Amino acid sequence: MACCATAGLTFINFFSHRISLRGKLLLFMSLFFCQYLKAQKITGSIVLNNDQLAVLPKEFYIAAVVDDRDDRNAVAWLLPFGTATATSAKYPVDLKGGTLAAIRQFIDVAMPANKGLRPVVMHIKTFRLDETLLPTGYVEGKLKVSLSFDLQKPDQLIYLTDYNGSADYNRRVNQDVDVKVVLRRALEYGLNNFNSWINREAATNVKLAKGVKIYFTEYTERPEGDTIYYSPQRPLQWADFMAKPMISRFGASVLPGVGYNEDVTVDKGIVMVHLSMKVYLPKSACWVKADSRNGYSLNHEQRHFDIVKIISERFKQKLKAEKLTIDNYDGPISVQYLEILHEMNVMQDQYDGETGHGMNTAIQQQWNERIDKELGSFK
User: Which range of residues forms the domain containing residue 273?
Assistant: First the structure.
């Protein structure tokens, strides 16, 4: 609080505010404006005297204002000038044209809309000034302001943050407050602090991102454990076939698969989606019979692993062609992943069916060439 003398009287006046994200206190300040206590009787509607803010937003504009107050009556409830007693009734004073229209007009002037920026909807939760007569004979005024800000999307509103502000003052019963300045300053503080918040958050907050970029790497693991991750420099070898041979008409078997790890960050307003691709084969699921340990059979099993690599590369190409949006980038990724799993199973069955599980050497050679050609196209 701060004390000041006006016309030989002592007053206490302060303004504090905070802006919160998900309920956490981010900012708290105290400001003083005792000069707004003046001997002025308010008899009509309050005019905010709209002026443009000194600092205009570069990240957003207010696209709409919504009045969510529980009590939508007058914004100020004041005690009679000069004659206030313990039994005095408060009289209401509202903004000219009504609270919603007046605040909308104030914002239109204070922050001219640049529709090339992000559209934001401001919700008025609380905006009220109440005066109370104190036992000391002074009149205490308390202003409370609560605002909420949402990012406007074509089909939804995305919550961003809240602003909660308050102002207290003491005056003598024969001295009034320049209420329009108190109310206007409260709105200015709310808008300026939201502007500061969005300036800080714009580069790293996923809700405020303007685009999506996807990139891929190949997952590796060192030292190598039970799982082999695909690498052209790391072909299969019979030592990898660690499972006990099954009772089967086939001489060997592998069980390769494909997956990915996803990591999402925001850099300079762009959602960076990093997919670390896993084309893998567990050694513990591979088996071979003793009489099948030859180069031809090993090549047939290697081609099963190669097919999964091809499917992985096709997955990348499909995602690169997608127009991913910040509202839904995981959806297309999941859909494409399910599709390539099906595509992988179809191609593996086709490979074994046409080659007779490697028994048809001529068709096997055709598949070898087909696989090598497609793998080469991804380099």
Answer: 211-377
Same domain for 342 and 244? Answer: yes
> Based on the domain organization, do 231 and 340 belong to the same domain?
yes
What is the tens place of the pLDDT at every residue in 203-232?
999 999 999 999 999 999 999 999 999 999
Task: Please tell me whether residues 156 and 22 are part of one structural domain.
Answer: yes
d(C-alpha 250, C-alpha 288), whole Å? 9
Tokens (6 digits) for 347: 């191609």
Beta strands 211-218 and 270-282, pairing class: parallel
Cα distance between the two ends of the chain? 69
Identify the pLDDT of residue 213: 96
* One-letter identity of residue 68: D
Q: For the CA atoms of the chain, what is the radius of gyration?
A: 35
Among all chains, which residue has been given the structure tokens 């005019």? 47
Q: Do 198 and 216 have their domain in common?
A: no
How high is the pLDDT of residue 137? 87
85 and 224 share a domain? no
Split into its structural domains, the chain has a count of: 2
Dump pLDDT digits (tens) for 256-283: 999 999 999 999 999 999 999 999 999 9
Do residue 143 and residue 275 come from a single domain? Answer: no
Q: Are residues 197 and 216 in the same domain?
A: no
Are the C-beta atoms of 185 and 202 separated by less than 8 Å? no
Q: How confident is the model at residue 55 (pLDDT cuts 50, 70, 90)?
A: confident
Final residue of a structural domain among 204, 234, 261: 204
Characterize the bridge pairing of strands 76-78 and 118-133.
parallel
Q: Residue 371 — pLDDT band, cuts 50, 70, 90?
A: very high
Strands 24-25 vs 37-38: parallel, antiparallel or unpaired: unpaired
Helix (H, G, I), strand (E, B) or coil at 303: helix
What's the pTM value of the predicted model, to 2 decimals? 0.75
Examine residue 223 and say whether the peptide bond preceding it is cis (omega within 30 degrees of 0).
yes
